[in-house]
Amino acid sequence: MLTTRLCTLLGIDFPIINAPMTGTASAELATAVSKSGAFGMIGSNLDPDPSWLKEQIQAVREKTSSPFGVGFISSAPGLEKSIQSALDAKVTAISHSFVDPTDLINQAKGSGVKVFAQVQTLANAKKAVNAGADVIIAQGNEAGGHTSYLGTLSFVRAVVKIAGDIPVVAAGGIADGPGLAAALMLGAEGAWMGTRFVASLEWAGPEWAKGQVILADADDTVLTKVYDLVSDAPFDMEVIGDRVISNTFTDRWHGQEAEMMAHQSELSEDIATATAAGDATTAPVRAGGASGLIRSIEPASYILREIISQAEDVLRNRPQKLLGG
């Protein structure tokens, strides 16, 4: 049976964490992932009122006693009450992203709640190590949604080399068993997967977005800033991009950002209208480079079983073939 230090730390069977996609990794997905033996994560919304998050935490607890956590886009303003509510609820772990994690790690000390630090730069990885993160999520730019500019392969390996005894989890472009096996061979203790769980029955986002993911090929995503700029999103624009499935909107405005911003208000309304209508030519669908590996929408439990089975097969048989065994 495939097991790693991450499994021991979190009390899980499989070294997989679903990415806490904002507002769409809800209780249903977190429950399904945790009940299946991996680590389910709720993606907190950006509302300063923690009511929704409290409801989601309670909903998971009503359906499973398995470990689970909550993830935050910690660069967004006004999340103090939500973060404190997750700590007060004594979830197994919380995850912080897109900030220097030091103060947030210090806030959780003594709470009994483990802290994941998702990092996109080696500088922030070093800060997470020094602050005593329980797990470091090393996110490469193949990831869907908000990410930076370092490739998963080299970045995960670089973080492993500085992390010492802290488990590192690989994120970005991993959607199947061979991808998980590759991450483990880099020294990671598990994988963090978002896009594969977008194409799950339990993902709370719109069905039309799931359909775009399974139709996309490996060439069909772009790392851009157009949607963030139009919406004044709370990210460091010098570091962070946004990987989405290419569409008419990105074809028109990616690389033409200055001209685009002269029409910011109009375009913001266009995006809102398209999102409500399920118009994928204009609305963003955040998905990673692994979209080309995904061809079906399945229950999370099936996805996990398939990934683990594939990874075990690769790890059992591929080394023997390479080494002449």
How is the secondary structure organized here?
Elements: H1 5-10, E1 16-18, H2 27-35, E2 40-43, H3 51-63, E3 68-73, H4 80-88, E4 93-97, H5 102-108, E5 114-119, H6 122-131, E6 135-139, E7 145-147, H7 152-163, E8 168-171, H8 177-185, E9 190-193, H9 195-198, H10 207-215, E10 221-224, H11 226-231, E11 241-245, H12 248-253, H13 257-261, H14 264-277, H15 300-322
Parallel strand pairs: 1-9, 2-3, 3-4, 4-5, 5-6, 6-8, 8-9
Antiparallel strand pairs: 7-11, 10-11
Could you characterize the architecture of this molecule?
The chain has 2 domains: 5-204 and 297-322, Alpha-Beta Barrel (TIM Barrel); 207-277, no CATH class. It contains 15 helices and 11 strands. The longest helix is centred in the C-terminal third of the chain and has 23 residues, at 300-322. Helix 6 (122-131) links the parallel strand 5 (114-119) and strand 6 (135-139). Helix 6 (122-131) runs parallel beside helix 7. It has helices at residues 5-10, 27-35, 51-63, 80-88, 102-108, 122-131, 152-163, 177-185, 195-198, 207-215, 226-231, 248-253, 257-261, 264-277, 300-322; strands spanning 16-18, 40-43, 68-73, 93-97, 114-119, 135-139, 145-147, 168-171, 190-193, 221-224, 241-245.
Summarize the model shown.
44% of the residues lie in helices and 15% in strands. The protein is an alpha/beta fold.
